[in-house]
Amino acid sequence: MKQVLVIAKFDQAEALRVAAGLTLMNDAVKVDVLGPLEESAAVNEQKEVIDFAEVQCEIVLANDLIKRIASDIMEADVVVVL
User: By Cβ atoms counted within 10 A, which residue in 13, 32, 37, 47 is the most buried?
Assistant: First the structure.
């Protein structure tokens, strides 16, 4: 089983959608959202899907950004940045 890290940097809704789709491969998926989660219909809809699929979703704020991202990247087999 692979460890897949999805980093939501540019398009949060798309990153969450991709993470949900990656669960179909039976790999462990984790999402790191850089900055606060957007309040939009698209993001809220995908967040519900992520919650249903039990995907770990972390909000990474500026004060621990580099440390957290570096740690998560080192643990992952595959990293996707969207």
Answer: 32
